[in-house]
Design brief:
The protein is mainly α and 93 residues long. The protein folds into 2 domains: 2-61, no CATH class; 62-93, no CATH class. It has helices at 7-23, 28-37, 51-57, 71-83. The radius of gyration is 22 Å and the shape is elongated. 1% of the residues are buried.
Length: 93
């Protein structure tokens, strides 16, 4: 295709190709379904294990990091948050 374009057309195509992802949106659930159902995903940038990642890409999350004095305090707080139905991720450093 690029062989059939003039230099001006090829430059315009490259500029548009680089800009369109900034302007685009997509249906995350439909995309995840396509990724899960895809038989040949070679060259797409997706794999069958990536459907969950696709679903989480567009999700805006808010979080709080709480520094605990020790592991016992962390465990106690984790149990309390889970009992209250909170989604919790634990980071240990």
């Amino acid at each position: 295709m690029a062989e059939e374009m003039s230099n001006t057309e090829a430059r315009a195509y490259l500029l548009a190709d680089n800009r369109t992802p900034d302007l685009a949106s997509y249906d995350e659930e439909a995309l995840a379904a396509m990724v899960e159902a895809g038989d040949d995903l070679i060259g797409t940038g997706y794999d069958k294990n990536g459907a969950d990642e696709v679903l989480w890409e567009g999700v805006r999350m808010h979080g709080v990091i709480i520094e605990c004095a020790n592991e016992a305090e962390q465990t106690s707080l984790l149990v309390e948050l889970l009992a209250n139905g909170r989604v919790v991720r634990v980071f240990v450093s």
